[in-house]
User: Which sequence fits this backbone?
């Protein structure tokens, strides 16, 4: 399933669209795996429990928003 370049924000949040994007962009998927797992660890090391919470929030937002941002930037 190919993603159209003019995808709406709401459509980009759907599971099928996100999955198709990450399957088509393996290098971005690998980076996102690292971000999702490493940001909370970096947050703990930087500022304790609050940093871990922020790391989780940022990594989840990045995971969900990356397909939309990448397609809008034309990458």
Assistant:
């Amino acid at each position: 399933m190919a993603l159209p370049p003019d995808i709406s924000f709401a459509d980009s949040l759907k599971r099928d669209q996100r999955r198709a994007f990450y399957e088509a962009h393996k290098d971005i998927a690998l980076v996102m795996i690292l971000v999702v797992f490493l940001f909370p660890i970096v947050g703990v090391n930087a500022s304790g429990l609050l940093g871990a919470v922020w790391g989780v929030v940022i990594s989840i937002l990045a995971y969900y928003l990356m397909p939309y941002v990448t397609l809008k930037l034309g990458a």
